[in-house]
Request: fold
Amino acid sequence: MEMPVPNPSIIARKARVVQRLHQVLPADAVISDEQETRAYECDALTAYKCPPMVAVLPYTTQQVSDVLRICHEEGVPVVPRGSGTSLAGGALPTADCVILGVARMSDVIETDYDNRFIKVQTGRTNLSVTGAVEEHGFFYAPDPSSQLACAIAGNIAMNSGGAHCLKYGVTTNNLMGVTMVLMDGEVIEVGGAYLDAGGLDLLGLICGSEGQLGVVTEATLRILHKPEGARPVLIGFDDNEVAGACVSDIIKAGVLPVAIEFMDRPCIEATEAFAKAGYPMCEALLIIEVEGSDAEIDHQLGLISDIARRHNPVELRQSQSPEESAKIWLGRKSAFGAMGQINDYMCLDGTIPVSALPHVLKRIGEMSDHYGLKVGNVFHAGDGNMHPLILFDANKPGDLELCEEFGAEVLKLCVEVGGCLTGEHGVGIEKRDLMHVQYAREDLDAQMSIKDIFDPAWLLNPAKVFPLDASESRRSVLLAAE
Amino acid sequence: MMDITSEDALVDAIKGARTPVSVQGGITRGLPKTGAVLSVAGLNGITLYEPGALTLVAQAGTPVADIEAALAQENQRLAFEPMDHRGLLGTTGKPTIGGVMAANVSGPRRISVGAARDFLLGVRFVDGQGVVVKNGGRVMKNVTGYDLVKVMAGSYGTLGVLSEISMKVLPRPETQATLVLHGLDDTTGVRAMAAALGSPFEVTGAAHDPAQKKTMLRIEGFETSVMYRLGRLRDLLGNMGAEITVSDEHKTADAWTAIRDVAAFSATQDDVWRVSCKPSDGPALAVRSQADAWLYDWAGGLIWLRCAAGHDLRRKLGAFDGHATLVRADDETKARLGVFHPENSGVARLTSALRAKFDPKGLFNTGLMERAA
Reply:
């Protein structure tokens, strides 16, 4: 993956930049020692690493504003960082950048149960947002699998999803307002504790902009009361296509489960060996969860089971207790870990129309043979968001590149059948150069012109999202001006 | 008047335009006209509908009624419940799906399932220089690049003219019923709605009519489930001091259509305002407004207010968390007070830069979203 050549004139001014940052931040908030900046050299896409020039960890919106103003004046690129859990390289530094981490901004500012919102600083982790309101029976719905560690700042930047978004939506559907600092230090307020923008929907634009439009320091989030209960049913099939048809029939029947998860045989085998959840050995496994009171759950699981039985499942196990539910979820929740036990893996994130599922799984199988790399599929079947896990050996020369080539082919296939490159992880650097596959030049220009407005000098997270050749003229404006 | 029947023709019309145009679909939403009419009502037809994937793609001028009919055949619906403005505004056209999305029109169910913008998965539009831009797609989860889909929803045609949209649709529930609380004042009504929304019983509509002192809470789903939830809600709200009745499926549907379309204000001539606010602020804002009548939807977070013609509601309300839109008034009043709420300076600078970027010739619904001087 190519990154822009660091600007030597910026690196030459490091001492001056550090000194100016010290003037506006407490001593412990500026990290410039080469050993210590190494802690910020990558995010969860660990194949790519580069220590930043400086890392800063401000405590307040004012300090974020001061940092951005200084970097703007000095012409220094800034890479915002939440908890560094991006799977797409969204927080990958360059050697001439300042990493701006919001991890120390984790306060709850306001909780309001009557109006059903919580306002937090964005360094707060996803799970601890729910933690702050669960005593009153409430929760924050988007639940990316990294929710123990990932920050709301990163969730907003990537418009994160999760297993339960079939019912509750993704981040953008649960975000009501933000405080955001623009690259020149201006602090703006968008939205708040009320619904829908009065004018243009800037909130929708900011969510999912991968830290390229501004640094969001505070967020107003919608909270909901927890359902009375939730239980899954596990259904095994000896054919992927039949499993896909079953999902489609359930949706058509008017049942809207909170989650429909799908695992294929390689993934089931790996998971069984690792977690011993007692899954049946079959071609396709569905875990479908519904919510409500006990009687409501029984009714819905009954309907789902009736539909499933018409497709001749090899196994159908309806959970009757929290213990059984935990056992059904155990394998799914350890799927990534199980695949990781076998080898290094790359996790893809394309979305496809649900109807294309059998075709896409067949093609992925053929590609797996062609590239000689094993792949397991686990994904959110209700919304078509796939997570093929391609296994490779990071210590074997050429294997990573082969894996990336395979991954790119899978993502191209997703677009070809009417889907997209990324459903919830974001583009970052990982899918950056594939954007041409999904979007024409004009489509990318329209998106880049948004960044021109928010960040005219292209200093915020500049080498992400857009193919380097497409963004080059914009990114070089600054260099030319020097 | 330019009648457009293809995206190519739309491109040509925009490239050829030298003076401002009024972008129109079904002409039911009562927007002031500026310049020649550019109608996209001829861009008509459902392009793709996959019930099992809960997605539908249609050309922007497709009548909402056609889409609802197609969905009904598969027992599905537009869950965000778009308002029909014709009764309130006295307009007569056919509402189009492009108009619904361009104005981000949602109804009572917005509080539980989201707004029109939350159901919009993808768009094709033509910008002010005649360039066709696509964004999003037809799958439910998509974070590939910036989300121009959201900013097109509610942009009232000021950034570009929608040619095609793709949407998420949802199953129609088996049945519905409404719990009605009688005799509550505004503050208690809003408190009852907050308690209902803060319960696990998935209320999909919460409205309060001060004139009739009726607070309505809608439950939808499978029949046994609806019965169960009504019972639990009744227990929960038993201490509010209200007489509680249940209205059945048929009466419920009509009542919620009336709330959605603000039918109570349709036979009058006064100005009508729409205020989005923090729900618990609703009653105090209503008093401050000095309006002649009002209704609460969205558990108090949406207030419809009827005022004497020319009444400057925003001045009466003063500063508050939210925004006020002038929905019905004569063109002079709309021009004087502005249809949309003034934005804070940071947001205003960005939104006006966005309009300038996408519509550099100033063609589309010029001035509509900026505050009149």
User: Anything to note?
Assistant: The mean pLDDT of chain B is 95. Residues 175-260 of chain B form a domain with the Alpha-Beta Plaits fold (CATH 3.30.70.600). Residues 223-236 of chain B form the longest helix (14 residues).
